[in-house]
Amino acid sequence: MSDQVLPPQRRQPPAGPGGGGGGPKLTPAQGAAEAQKRLGLTCYHAGQKVVGMVGCVACQFQIRNRSALPTCPQCGEMVWAWLDEGPAPVPEDLTAEERSAHEKAQAELNQKPAVEEGVSLEATPEVTIEENVKLEP
């Protein structure tokens, strides 16, 4: 399989001497965290126990999962995004540190923009409004 077909998380050259340079490979957990930042969706990696509808972040293959997440049967990707309704579940097999990081990432995703009432939308001094301007010659 050529590097052009692989998703970005799997295109990295191997680390170490003779491996083509590059940095260290991402772990599945790091790949899920990167995908979560990039997509704005809760992401999981293969092996985590998650029940619900998930989609592959590389090829959008969707499955309704009932136990541990597999690698994508279509492209081999290990990272899945949560697509089901409702709040995303916290995987059962997380350590205390991983659970804390997962909950912090969930809180960041769930932040909504501030809504302000009574904001004036009038023109400010820096903006000038001109009427009857012809755009065509």
C-alpha end-to-end distance: 57 Å
Instruction: Tell me the structural class.
Output: alpha+beta
Largest beta sheet: strand ordering? 1-4-2-3
Overall shape: elongated
Descriptive notes:
With 137 residues, this protein is α+β, with helices and mostly antiparallel strands. The protein has a domain at 27-107. The chain contains two helices and four strands; from the N terminus they run αββββα. The protein has helices spanning 28-39, 96-110, and strands at 43-45, 52-56, 62-65, 79-82. The protein has a four-stranded antiparallel beta sheet.
Q: What are its keywords?
A:
single chain; 137 residues; alpha+beta; 12% strand
Give the secondary structure arrangement, pairings included:
Blueprint: H1 28-39, E1 43-45, E2 52-56, E3 62-65, E4 79-82, H2 96-110
Antiparallel strand pairs: 1-4, 2-3, 2-4
Structure described in brief:
It is built from two helices and four strands. By secondary structure, it is of the alpha+beta class. It has a domain at 27-107.
